[in-house]
Amino acid sequence: MCGEIMIIEFKIRNFLSIKEEQILSFEADKTKKYNDYLIIKAGKYNLLKLIAICGPNASGKTNIINAFEALRTLIVGSGDIRIFQYPPYFAADPIYNSGNTEFKLDFLIDDNESYVRYRYEISFNYLKNIINYEKLEYFPSQKPALIYERKVNTSNGRGFELKIPGTMRLKKAEMDAIKANTFEYTTILSVFQIINPLFPQAKNAFTWFKNSTLPKITPQTPIMQGALQYFEESTKRKKFLIEFLKNADINITDLSISKIEEDAPEEMANILKNIKNTLPRKTRPEFSNTKITRYDTHFIHKSNNNGVETSYSLPLSSESLGTYRIFELAYPMWLAVTGSKILMIDEIESSLHLEMVKYILLVYLMNSEKSQMLFTTHNLMLMDWDVMINDFIWFTEKDESGETILYPLSSFNGLNRQKILKQYMAGNFGAFPDIYQYKFDLNRL
N or C: less crowded end of the chain, CB within 10 Å? Predict the structure, then answer.
C-alpha cells in the first residue's frame, strides 16, 4: 500500500478545557520490544496502533478527540475557523478567552515504503476570525524543509502573506490561484479541494490526510444508514460483516440487506419543495417526485429446541442496542483492516459488554496493518487486560483551574502490570473522581 498517513505526535493549546500545551504521542518506547500486532513498524519509527484515554467525567477526554476532529475539519473540511458552533478557547481564563488556539501535528506519510515525516502547524484567533500562522514542512533529512508558511498581514488586503520557497517550483499562476482562493479565516491546505496546482508536497499531504482520517465516532453518531449502504454494495464487505457478527457470539448466522427506493412522505416532499423555492433560480435542484432510499435489514438467528436446530429472522429495529452498536462499528473496522485509517471513537464501550469491547479491539489489532485508533473509555477493567500495554493507556484530569492535563501511564515508575487497576483505584495515577459527599440534608434543601 502507499499514500498512508500515521500520527506521530499531536499538540493542542487553548482548545476547550485544554489551556497550556498538551501532547499526545503515538511513538512507542524505543527501549521495549512489542508484539507485531501492537505497533506499526514504519522505517525508523515504531508507532502505537491504539491509545485509550481514561479519566473522570468532565476531565477532557472527549476534548482530545474534538481537537483532532477540529484539525481534520480545518484541513480537509471547510477549512474555515468560523465553523465552530461555540468558542473553542479555554473559557476559564480571561487571558485565554482572547488568545490563540494552536494545533501541531507530526505525521508520517508512506509513499511506496519510503516514510517521510511531515509537520503541520496552525494558530488562529476565533474572536478575530483570523488565522495568525500556518506552516507545513517535511523532513527529507534530519532537518525540516519548508513547503509553505503563512503569516497574518492586515495591510495587504488579503489578511495574510504567503511564503513558498523556490525549491517547491510553483508557477506564479498557481501561487496566485492559491492566494485567490484563500481568505484570512481559511487554511491553505483546504484550498486543494477546489484547485489542483502542481504542488506535490502540499497536495499529497492534503490528499493522504483526507483519505486516511475518518470523522469522529460518538454513541450518537448516525453511522447506520451509511453502513447499510456500504455493506449492501459489496458481497465481499457483506461476508466480512457476517463473519464479524458470527464471531461476536450474538447468535447471528446471516443477514439480508435490501435497498428500497420509494416516494418521500408528502410532508417531507413539501418541506423540500419549500426549501427549493427559497433558493435562487439558477441554483434550484430539479426534481418532481422526491425519492428516499432505505434499507430493509433482517438478521438470521439460530435456535436449538429439543435438539432440533432452527433459524428465525428479526428486523434490525428488533435487535438490542448492543447488536446495533456492533453492526455500526463493523463499518469503521472494515475500513481500518483493509486500508490505512485513523479512527477516533468516543466511549467505545457504549452499550457493549467488556468482552465485546475486547473482541472489537482484537479484530482491529490482529487484522490492521497501518491504521491507528484513539478512543475514550470509562471501562476501567480494560486496564487489567494484558493486551492493553502501558503505552496504550493515557489519562486526563482537571486541575483546580479547570484545565485538562493529559499524560501517559508509562510516565510512572514502579508499575505492576498485574495490578494496574488496583494501583489506579488507590489513586496512584491521579485522574480519579474526587467524590466525598453522599448524604444530603433534604430538609435544608
Answer: C
Q: What is the pLDDT of residues 107-120, one digit of tens each?
A: 998 877 788 999 99
Phi and psi torsions of 362, nearest 5°: -70, -40
How far from 289 is each of 65, 269, 270, 273, 285, CA to CA, in Å? 41, 8, 10, 10, 12
Q: How far apart are CA 398 and CA 426, in angstroms?
A: 18
Query: How do strand 159-163 and strand 252-263 relate by DSSP bridges?
Result: unpaired
Q: Which among 215, 311, 321 has a CA at the least distance from the CA of 254?
A: 311
Amino acid letter for position 30? K
Closest C-alpha to 432, from 53, 63, 62, 57: 57
Q: What is the residue whose three cell numbers read 501561487?
A: 175
Element (H, E) at 7: strand 4-13
Domains parsed from the chain with CATH numbers: 1-214+341-445 (3.40.50), 224-339 (no CATH)
Residue 171: count other Cβ atoms within 10 Å of its Cβ. 11
CA–CA–CA angle 53, 15, 71 (5° rounding): 80
Q: How sure is the predictor about 1, in pLDDT bands with cuts at 50, 70 and 90?
A: very low
Q: Which three cell numbers stand for residue 392?
A: 496504550
Backbone angles phi and psi of 19, in degrees to 5: -100, -80
Output the pTM of the full model.
0.89
